Amino acid sequence: MIARIHMTSRSVAMPYLPPQKRDHEQVTRWVRGVLLKRCRVWVAVREAEITGYAALDGDMLEHLYLRPDVRRQGIGTLLLNEIRRHSPDGVSLHVFQQNTDARAFYERHGFTVLDTSDGDRNMESLPDMTLRWTPACAR
Fold first, then answer.
1. pTM score of the predicted model
2. What is the CATH number of the domain that holds 58?
3. According to the model, what pLDDT value does residue 21 have?
4. DSSP letter for each residue of 33-83
């Protein structure tokens, strides 16, 4: 289910991304073989169905994706709050510059821009930004 959420969310929320090169089976293998082994992963569940997930690698929020039909219902905030609760020194993340919805979401939750990139550090080759949230007690 995480693979399906990952793929669907990216295609719906970020239509400017290049076409996906990996199929569902390949993304499922990545979830099992890489994501779940390398990251701490939280899932949001409603009525026995996974509606979203967040993955933290050290202090880097690598992924926060929701099913498109549950966006703007507080689920992303719940996942983000759980990530922050487990990150006493703060959290960083990368976001595509074109992803204005995600940028606004993170800004509302206290993230600030650390730097920008022309896309040389992501496989999509799209301009991105590094955002950081630092708890008040760590500032």
1. 0.91
2. 3.40.630.30
3. 84
4. IIIHHHSEEEEEEETTEEEEEEEEETTEEEEEEE-GGGTTSSHHHHHHHHH
